[in-house]
């Protein structure tokens, strides 16, 4: 009958609607599962990238720490060398002053001896004593001249040594500046290399 056909059609339509709804639900679940899996993969990739960045930063910090320690050790070494060189210069100056005072004292004694000898010679009236006095005077003068020459040569030698120490100080300062410049350049090259490595890894990811 017509009513039976209508009920059958409604029943078929209901079944089709239920099946369509089930199909849509299954498709939505599959889409949701695929989306969740994609998000999980992205999360794993981000975790790996984060771990890579942490390793890179740790290495960079280690390089910076090593360079800083090396610079501090070099500064300490240069400072010790500078103090030692200043002490050597002061020691040489003290020796020079002592030597100069000794020369002055000997010259004074020699002059005093000349005066005493001259007084004794003037008081002598015997001819052979006069000859002996002249001979002694010549000998004393020769000795004084020889001593003066020796002392002047020693002073020149000490002066040359002092100039050499000053040149050595200048050379040490120059070497320190060159070393600090080299360490700065090495530090900058290390930082640039680490940054390039991190950038390459980021781009590859």
Automatic annotation (TrEMBL):
Key word Cytoplasm present: yes
Q: Is Cytoplasm set as a keyword in this record?
A: yes
Chief localization class? Answer: cytoplasm
Q: Name one GO cellular component term.
A: photoreceptor connecting cilium
Cellular compartment(s):
Cytoplasm, Cytoskeleton, Microtubule organizing center, Centrosome, Centriole
Q: Which segments does the entry list as coiled coil?
A: 22-77, 148-182
Instruction: Give the record's keywords alphabetically.
Output: Cell cycle, Coiled coil, Cytoplasm, Cytoskeleton, Repeat
Q: Which GO terms describe its biological process?
A: eye photoreceptor cell development
What family classification does the UniProt entry report for this protein? Belongs to the POC5 family.
Name the UniProt record assigns to this protein: Centrosomal protein POC5
* Classification lineage: Eukaryota, Metazoa, Chordata, Craniata, Vertebrata
GN (gene name): Poc5
């Amino acid at each position: 009958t017509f009513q039976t056909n209508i009920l059958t059609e409604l029943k078929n339509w209901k079944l089709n609607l239920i099946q369509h709804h089930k199909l849509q639900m299954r498709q939505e679940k599959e889409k949701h599962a695929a989306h969740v899996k994609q998000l999980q993969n992205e999360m794993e990739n981000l975790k790996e990238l984060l771990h890579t960045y942490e390793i890179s930063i740790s290495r960079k910090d280690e390089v910076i720490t090593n360079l800083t320690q090396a610079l501090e050790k070099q500064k300490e070494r240069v400072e010790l060398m500078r103090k030692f060189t200043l002490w050597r210069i002061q020691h040489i100056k003290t020796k020079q002053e002592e030597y100069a005072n000794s020369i002055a004292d000997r010259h004074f004694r020699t002059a005093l001896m000349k005066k005493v000898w001259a007084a004794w010679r003037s008081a002598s009236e015997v001819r052979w004593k006069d000859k002996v006095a002249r001979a002694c005077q010549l000998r004393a003068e020769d000795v004084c001249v020889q001593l003066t020459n020796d002392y002047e040569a020693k002073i020149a030698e000490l002066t040359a040594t002092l100039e050499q120490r000053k040149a050595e100080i200048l050379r040490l300062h120059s070497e320190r500046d060159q070393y600090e410049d080299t360490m700065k350049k090495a530090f900058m090259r290390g930082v640039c290399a680490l940054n390039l490595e991190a950038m390459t890894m980021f781009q590859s990811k």
